[in-house]
Specification:
Methyltransferase-like protein 23; Rossmann fold; SAM-dependent_MTases_sf; methyltransferase; Methyltransf_16; 231 residues; alpha/beta
Length: 231
């Protein structure tokens, strides 16, 4: 994976709306997140299609996010993690330690939304599958997040071994939005190997309860939301 060389940029806006249920207040809740995207060859400089789906799910659960210890893996532009931070979670955003330009761009994305790295959110470079001291210090975690981390089959085990390490001995969970790219790809054997259990979330039920049609987010893409826990 390359850090890429940024060329033309654009500002992408994501708007989340909902009803407030506190103290009889019927005014709508509103959150706007802006992501400065760079049209470059690097994967991490633009928002992948799975990220808005994960962010939408987190928005439907926003009242449960405050105070949670949240860690996003391979976050790219960090949309889901930024939303969680704006909803009151204690968030650490991570991406590949081998991509310093990507981490700098992630810092820009945070600052564009009024979040100061080191104060409001924490940023860290990680290498999946390598359990160095900085990884140990990330524990305990209540909620792990990732969007499209199951993109390169050669990295599936690195991702899941990292998830297993971070969730081991906790009640935490891993939420992953991903795009189905091949019916031949499967993580079932790896889940079993690393003591994990996965289940797909019912997006239709979530869409009905939230009043927001998730299909408008995903278009004709085959996107799913997977929850993984340690067993």
């Amino acid at each position: 994976m390359s850090d890429g060389r940024p060329v033309n940029g654009q500002l992408k806006k994501f708007v989340f709306r909902g009803k407030s249920a506190s103290n009889g207040d019927t005014r709508g809740e509103y959150l706007e997140i802006v992501i400065p995207e760079l049209l470059s060859a690097g994967y991490s400089f633009y928002t992948w299609p799975s990220a808005p789906l994960l962010a939408w799910y987190l928005w439907t659960q926003r009242r449960h996010l405050r105070g949670l210890r949240v860690l996003e893996l391979g976050c790219g532009t960090g949309l889901p993690g930024i939303l969680a931070a704006k909803c009151g979670a204690h968030v650490t955003l991570t991406d590949s330690v081998a991509l310093p330009r990507s981490l700098l761009h992630l810092s820009d994305c945070c600052e564009a939304n009024g979040l100061v790295p080191g104060r409001d959110v924490h940023l860290l470079g990680l290498a999946w599958g390598l359990f160095l001291a900085e990884v140990h210090h990330l524990r305990p975690v209540d909620l792990l997040l990732a969007s499209d981390c199951f993109y390169e089959p050669s990295q599936f085990e690195e991702v899941l071994s990292t998830v297993a390490y971070l969730l081991d001995g906790t009640d935490g969970r891993f939420l992953c939005a991903y795009q189905e790219r091949s019916a031949d790809w499967s993580i079932e054997a790896l889940l079993k190997k690393w003591g994990l259990k996965g289940s797909l979330l019912d997006l239709d039920s979530l869409s009905e309860s939230s009043g927001v049609d998730y299909r408008a987010l995903i278009g004709d893409r085959s996107l799913h939301l997977l929850e993984i826990i340690s067993v």
